[in-house]
Every structure is written in C-alpha cells, then in structure tokens.
Amino acid sequence: MPTNILIIGASRGLGLALAQEFASDPNYHIYASVRSPAPDNRLPANITQVILDITDDTSIHTAASSIPALDILIVNAAFGGDPERLTDVSPERLLEYLQPNVVGVHRVVRAFLPSLRKGEGVKKIILISSYQGSLEGQKHASAEESYSGPYSVSKAAMNMLAVQYHNELNGYTKEVDERRFVVVPIHPGWMATDMGKKGGDGGQDPRISAKGIVGVVNGLKKEDSAVFYQWDGKVLPW
C-alpha cells in the first residue's frame, strides 16, 4: 500500500515543489490541494488534485470526504502580505493574517483527522511555519530581519497549534512509545517564491527547500514530535 500524503496549497511555489519531490518516489500517493484544477496531463500518475479553499468550510469538508485514509498531512497554505508594522495595522487587518494562518490551519487539521486516524502506524502532521514565528528569534531580530509583525504573530500562533495538537492527539502521554501522532512546524527558509520576493531578492529555489523538507518528514520519529525544525533538519528555538 502506498503512503498517502495530502499537501494543502500545492498549486505553486513550495507546495508544488513538495508534491513533485514526493511524487518522485512511487511508494507515495500525493493528494495535492489547489483552488483551480490544472490539466491532468501535466501531473504524474501518483498525484491526485483535490479542490480546496482553506477559508471555506464547505470546500474543506467536501475534500475531506473524498480522501479515505491519510498517513501525512502537510499544511502549506498561508497569507504573507506585505512587510507591515504591528503598531500600524488595524484589528481587521490582523485578522486577515490570523484567519488563514491560524484558523484556516485549524479547520484543515480538524477536518482531516478522521482520515489520519484510519489505518495503522504513526501519522504525521506538518505545518509549514516560519522562523518569523520564533519568539526567541524575534526577540533578538533587527528591523531588517523582522519581515512583518502581523505575520510573525500569526506564525507564532501556528506553532502553538502544533504543540497543542501534539499534546491532545497523543493524550498528553510522556511515554514516547505510546505516541500515535508526530506533529511539527517546519521553517522552509527564505525562498524565491511570490511571497518570499516581497522581502527582496536572494531567496533559494523552493525545490531546494522541498527536497530538504521531504528528508526531514521521512526521518521523523515519535520522539521528534513538538520540535520546531528548519528545512535542512536544524532544530530552531521556540
């Protein structure tokens, strides 16, 4: 039986690169979520497109009903916005970050938990986060290193989602052998994607990040849950 993976936000950039990297291994079947379908003849045989909008409950639940069982869920969809100071944004603007980056992530994880709970073995939930969400990292950041205050707030909240999913899905057990879920946030690095270019030029090819992330995901063990990783396997501070 192939390992079933769902990648949320796989139409371009990192999500597309992740789908392609996983698809290079025939032992994986990838469900790639997109808002608008691409022609089927562009896709490898082990990639299935799933129409999904992370802000739409109906869309999410329709997609969830079409996937019977999952081994790995990767939530990549996010809103980056432009560089902004937290002190300059309205509460309404802050919600534009929190809705997709926190509430939308929670919508997706909850909707696909039944699929993840089917079958045997350890299941993995990967949240594509950012070092901008590291409290320790931001505490020492310069103005140039801090991309956007509202974005950082949303990614820090996403990281806490990962920790709480880890606790609750594993029943707060302290026994590593009893864990059924591995839940981690991963920082993909600064990439030359549409969002990454808002911070300037010089980001790395998302295919490099994707290759590293696939290696991290494949190597995750029960004891690695609730650890904040970088794309190359480096452990980051919360």
From TrEMBL:
Gene3D superfamilies: NAD(P)-binding Rossmann-like Domain (3.40.50.720). It comes from the Eukaryota. This is NAD(P)-binding protein. The lineage of its organism: Eukaryota, Fungi, Dikarya, Basidiomycota, Agaricomycotina. One of its GO terms (molecular function) is oxidoreductase activity, acting on the CH-OH group of donors, NAD or NADP as acceptor. Residues 1-19 form the signal peptide. Keywords: Signal.
